[in-house]
Design brief:
The protein has about 80 residues and is mainly α. It is built from three helices and no strands. Helices cover about 70% and strands about 0% of the residues.
Length: about 80
């Protein structure tokens, strides 16, 4: 529940900042929206109650999905590049 509220707050703040006229505010708004998307991707992975995805240690039924975590790492790099540009 807390993550969903934080995603909503970050998205609302990002949209509000992107509607302003200043370029710095637009960049900050884009950054806030990208953080909200990262949280949404992490919450889709639901790694809180899952085990580490190590081969031979844990079974596939209890292992966390590493794909959302890889998506978030890629999104962080893309956001950094976009912000620097």
């Amino acid at each position: 529940m807390t993550i969903a509220i934080m995603i909503g707050v970050l998205t609302a703040g990002g949209v509000y900042l992107m509607m302003q006229r200043g370029m710095v505010r637009v960049v900050f708004g884009l950054s806030l929206i990208s953080h909200a998307v990262n949280l949404a991707l992490l919450s889709a992975g639901v790694a809180a109650w899952r085990a580490e995805p190590l081969e031979g240690v844990n079974g596939l039924d209890v292992s966390a999905d590493p794909l959302p975590q890889a998506f978030v790492l890629t999104a962080i790099v893309i956001t950094l590049g976009t912000t620097a540009f």
